[in-house]
Design a protein that fits this description.
By secondary structure, the chain is an all-beta fold. The protein has no helices and nine strands.
């Protein structure tokens, strides 16, 4: 099982104003937690991306977290940002089980 995202995310480096685009293929999703619930397993997926400024050697980090419960249904998502802003998130997140 894994997660697929659709579209392109756009991030802005806070200190330099540089814009970075993130394509779905740029992310490697991992299952970081599985919790058994009433309707089966809840899967927590995470993908982390680091990128660097060309103007200054500053690192930024983005972590996407997506929860699938029940299997085949994305029921929650979060994004954690460090040293950047999100201008546009991915259009959607899909479970591989429904593709």
């Amino acid at each position: 099982m894994t997660i697929k995202c659709l579209g392109t995310a756009k991030l802005k480096k806070s200190e330099t104003g540089e814009i970075f685009e993130v394509c779905p293929n740029d992310l490697e999703w991992e299952v970081v937690d599985v919790e058994e619930k009433k309707m089966g397993a809840e899967l927590h997926y995470s993908a982390q991306l680091f990128f660097y400024s060309k103007q200054k050697e500053l690192e930024a980090e983005v972590i996407w977290d997506v929860w699938e419960y029940p299997i085949g249904s994305i029921n929650h998502q979060e994004i954690q940002l460090e040293n950047c802003q999100i201008l546009k998130n991915f259009d959607d997140f899909l479970s591989e089980s429904i593709l």
